[in-house]
Amino acid sequence: MSVRSKIIVSYTLVLVVTILIFITTAFLVALAVTGDARSFKPFYTIHFTLQPLTPEQESLYMDLKYIAKTSPEKLYDDSLQKDYEFQLRVAKSTLLIRKEGDVDFASPQLEGTGVERVLPDYELDNIRIRSSVNIGDRFYGYAKYDFVLPDQSRGSLFVIRELSPFAALTSKLLPLLISLLFVVLVLANVMLYFFITRRIIKPLDTLRMSAARIKEGDLDFRVEAQSLDEIGQLSQQFEDMRRKLKESVDLQLQYEANRKELISNISHDLKTPITTIKGYIEGIRDGVPNTKEKMDKYVDTIYTKAVAMDRLIDELFLYSKLDLKKVPFDFVRTDLRAFIDGLVGELRFELEQQGFQVEWAGKGGAPAFVLLDPDKMKRAIVNIVENSIKFCDKPDKKIRFTLTEEAGKLKLTIEDNGPGIAEDAVRSVFDRFYRADSSRNMRTGGSGLGLSIAKQIVEGHQGSIGVESEPGEGTVVSITFHVCEET
After folding, report:
1. Distance (Å, rounded) from C-alpha 192 to C-alpha 345?
2. b vs e for 452-469, b when ≥16 Cβ sit within 10 Å of the residue's Cβ?
3. Distance (Å, whole) CA 460 – CA 323
4. Is 481 exposed, middle or buried, given 0-12, 13-18 or 19+ CB atoms closer than 10 A?
5. What mean pLDDT is predicted for residues 251-276?
6. Residues 319, 325, 329, CA angle at the centre, nearest 5°?
7. Phi-psi region of 412 (alpha: psi -120 to 50; beta: other; left: phi over 0)
8. Which of 68, 196, 272, 302 is buried most, with the most CB atoms less than 10 Å from its CB?
């Protein structure tokens, strides 16, 4: 049975059982009080007129009535009056005795109430001996008995009980209150059902359908939280889980695509030099290089290809460890200006040999300290420079290093005047295995990991790296470092 069906059945049973219990209880109470189920309706309208006194008060009243019938003169005895007044006070009622219309005795509780003015006159027949009266907002029920004394004077006996106005009003409105209670009970259950259906069943049903879609592999949807309660929080957490799962799946697909591309790249990049090496070795075995010069050329070619293969394997190994966060960084407080100055000095000779004009715009400035792993940062900068070397095809090749400081950060820029990078390629140059030039030649093809390794190293220093380029105008790579405060 579904949750919706269970809630419908449960609330229907609650409603039916509640109504049955209420009706049964009301019937039994009416039967117990009135002795007749048919008198239930008029009972509340005449109750206080017929029974103004409680059973205990009624018992004391009957004692006094008996005295009035047999020895009425005793009712005017002070000791008897005080004794019965005390007993009636304990029973939460009062006593009033009249003689010839004048009050002979009245309980102290009646003083100042004015009740004696509204009590009925002498009635020898004693037809109406029980009734109720009210004075302002105070209600009184009474039982009386009129009698004749031996001297033929008239006397009256009253046992009076003050009634609660709230109780009297409730007794009159009880049928209406019962009806109202029934209506409220029904409406409350109906509203509660719709509330639970809207706030619980629908969100849970949405989560159920969402889970089914995820089970089928569909992650392209969104779960909206309808409230801030536990169900809403569950929906939000479910949405977070779906989003992270989708990101994980997308990343896994990207990794799979990268893996396939990597295997393809490695296969090609290794197969090409290996084929070359095999060809030259076979030539040597066949005696093709029959002079020292040819032999040296064959050996140099084999060595060059072997070095290229070694470098490719080294880059793959380094990138793998960086990507898995398994390369430790040995940070030391370093003057970045002096570090770049030394590195430019090391690179200058090779760059000039390849026709580059080298400019270093940060020489001679104030020391600028950062936390640096010199070996790894050198590797990152060399990768960026080698990328410029590979692609620069102009006769007047230039490369410029600049170091500036702003807002507590140091910014190193490496600018060349090469062919630049297309706008759609700028966003991808730091991606794994990305190549702006998809050719496989050793001069410009490379492994596609150089800039990715540089990015991993810079981010390992809590820095950032970016690139700006205009096709035909050159490329600017910028690295941002956090300034290290002096200790």
Report:
1. 80
2. bbbbbbbebbebebbbeb
3. 10
4. buried
5. 75
6. 90
7. beta
8. 68
74: its two tokens: 């005793």
| pLDDT, position 442 | 46
* Structure token pair of residue 107: 């309980």
Residue 67 has pLDDT above 90, yes or no: yes
Q: What is the overall mean pLDDT for the chain?
A: 79
Rounded distance between C-alpha atoms, residue 226 and residue 173, angstroms: 43
What are the Cα distances from residue 378, in Å, to 115, 319, 321, 383, 458? 111, 15, 17, 9, 11
User: pTM score, two decimals?
Assistant: 0.45
Q: Dig out the tokens for 213 from the structure.
A: 């879609």
| Residue whose token pair is 């390992």 | 460
Range from 73-77, 296-300, 325-329, 397-401 carrying the lowest mean pLDDT: 325-329
Q: Which two tokens stand for residue 250?
A: 């997308």
Summarised one tens digit per residue, pLDDT across range 360-389 is 887 777 888 889 888 888 888 988 888 888
Q: In what order do the strands lie in the sheet with 154-163?
A: 102-106, 94-99, 154-163, 138-148, 130-135
